[in-house]
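A favour, since you know our C-alpha cells better than I do. Just paste the record in under my message, thanks.
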Amino acid sequence: MNRLLGGVLVGWVLLLPAALHAQEARGEKDAATHEALRALKNDMEQALNAQDLERLLSHLHPDVVFTTMNNDVRVGKDAIRAYYEAMLNGPDRVVEKLTAKFEVDDLTRLYGETGLAQGSSTDHYVLTDGSDLVIHGRWSCALVRQGDRWLIASFHYSTNVFDNPVLDLVKKKMTLAGVAGGVGLLLVGLVVGRITGRRKSAAA
C-alpha cells in the first residue's frame, strides 16, 4: 500500500511541471485570442463609423447571419451589403449618418474554435427627415476561428421596445398630427359656421 501511494506521489510530482506548462500555454493562447478579438471589435467599430462597408464585411463569415434592430434578418455578405446600401445610400434611405460605440460585458467565452460575446452599444443616428436620435442597444455575437483569423458568424442587435427614442419620436409626431388635425377641424368648423350664418342672413 505504501509502495502504491509512493508511486502515485512520484508520478504526480513528475507530471505536475508538464501540467503547469500546458496550463500556462493555454493561458497565453487565450490571452492572445482575446487581444485579437479586441482588435476585431475596434476595427469593426471604426469601419462602421467611417462607412467603410468592404472593411466591415471583411470581418464577417461568408454565411453570417445578421439580425438588425428593425427585426430584419440578412444571411450572407451580399444580403448585408444590400441592406446597408438601402439604409444609408439608396434613394429611399432612412439614415443619413450613423456612428456607434460598442462596449463588451466581459471577455468572450471560448469553446475551442468558437466564441460567444455580448455587450451594449450607444448609436447616434441622423435620419433623412432631420431627426437626431441616440439609441442604447444590446448585442450578442458568435465568432468562429478560420485559420489564424476570427470571423463573425452571427450578430444580433436589439433595443428596448418599450422605451427608446424612436418610440418617443413616433409619439411626438402623433401628438403633433393630432394637434394639427384638431386645429384643422376647428378652422373648417369656423368656415362652415360663417358660411351657414351668411346664408341664414341672406334668407332672412
In short: Residues 126 and 132 are 5 Å apart (CA to CA).
